[in-house]
Specification:
- By secondary structure, the chain is mainly alpha-helical.
- It folds into 3 domains: 4-73; 78-119; 174-265, Orthogonal Bundle (Arc Repressor Mutant, subunit A).
- It has 10 helices and 7 strands.
- Strands 4-6-5 form a 3-stranded antiparallel sheet. It has a two-stranded antiparallel ribbon with strand order 1-2.
- The chain is flat.
- The relative contact order is 0.06.
- The model is unreliable at 246-266 (pLDDT under 50).
């Protein structure tokens, strides 16, 4: 909502006053801006809380009226239409933009001129080596023999070796946990107590060691062996606690166990 103003020539909303001035229906000379500002401040003091929207609108309209009145007070052409004045501002801005562009081109031309002047001070060498330095040139054939030349030729014409795929890091043997369990069932009752290091001393691959460890965990889950490690990273002590080979009851569990034990292949 626009502020309400009261002047000797107009009384009403502030934005309507601006519209009448711009339409030349009111003379800007007859409008006392100081009284308008004082009246708005008095009206603003009565409004609580403070509303920023009418304040901002009043400042914009007041600034436009101040500009119009200042232009009217300054000397200039007696009759200048608003459209003509706006077109003059547009031409001024366009001329100013062209001047800035010309300044950029002039600066670029000055840079190129400086580079050309600096390059003109350099002189390229037009002669070859001086007479006393011609014999000092390196001998490109020094150390070259017929044998080395023939060896280089044979290397160049030799057929390229056929590409091969290295599979040395791939484990091709199949190692099963069930086989390792059966082997430990045969070996551990006779040894009683041993270490995991001794049980894997004959292993030649990492996969065999891993499968032996999984087989020990399977026997420990059945309660046939006891595992003990006294210190961190120390030897793993394996003790046979089943007393002997498994009886018929364990043989009946064998088919179920064989399905549960997975086969590990490299």
């Amino acid at each position: 909502m626009s502020a309400h103003v009261r002047t000797p020539v107009f009384e009403g909303p502030f934005d309507v006053l601006l519209h009448l001035v711009s339409e030349h229906k009111l003379e800007v000379y007859d409008i006392p801006l100081a009284e308008i500002v004082d009246g708005f401040l008095a009206e603003l003091a009565e409004r609580r809380p403070l509303d920023l929207e009418p304040c901002s609108e009043f400042l914009v309209i007041a600034a436009i009226l101040v500009e119009l009145k200042s232009r009217a007070l300054l000397p200039g052409p007696d009759e200048v239409e608003d459209d003509e004045e706006l077109s003059g501002f547009e031409e001024r801005d366009r001329l100013l933009a062209r001047l800035y562009e010309l300044q950029v081109y002039a600066a670029a031309a000055d840079t190129f001129a400086s580079l050309v002047e600096r390059a003109a001070r350099s002189l390229a060498r037009t002669a070859g080596l001086e007479e006393q330095f011609r014999d000092a040139a390196p001998d490109l054939l020094a150390g070259l023999t017929a044998e080395r030349l023939a060896a280089a030729f044979l290397t160049a014409v030799a057929p390229a070796p056929a590409p091969g795929l290295d599979l040395s890091h791939v484990t091709v043997e199949a190692v099963t946990v069930s086989e390792a369990v059966a082997e430990l069932e045969e070996r551990l009752p006779g040894e009683g107590t041993t270490t995991f290091r001794d049980l894997t001393s004959q292993c030649t691959t990492r996969m065999q060691v891993i499968v032996r460890f999984l087989a020990l965990l399977e026997l420990c889950k059945r309660g046939w062996v006891a595992l003990e490690q006294g210190t961190t990273f120390g030897d793993l002590v394996v003790t046979w606690t089943a007393g002997g080979r498994a009886g018929d009851e364990e043989e009946e569990r064998a088919p179920a166990m064989s399905g549960a034990v997975e086969e590990y292949e490299g």
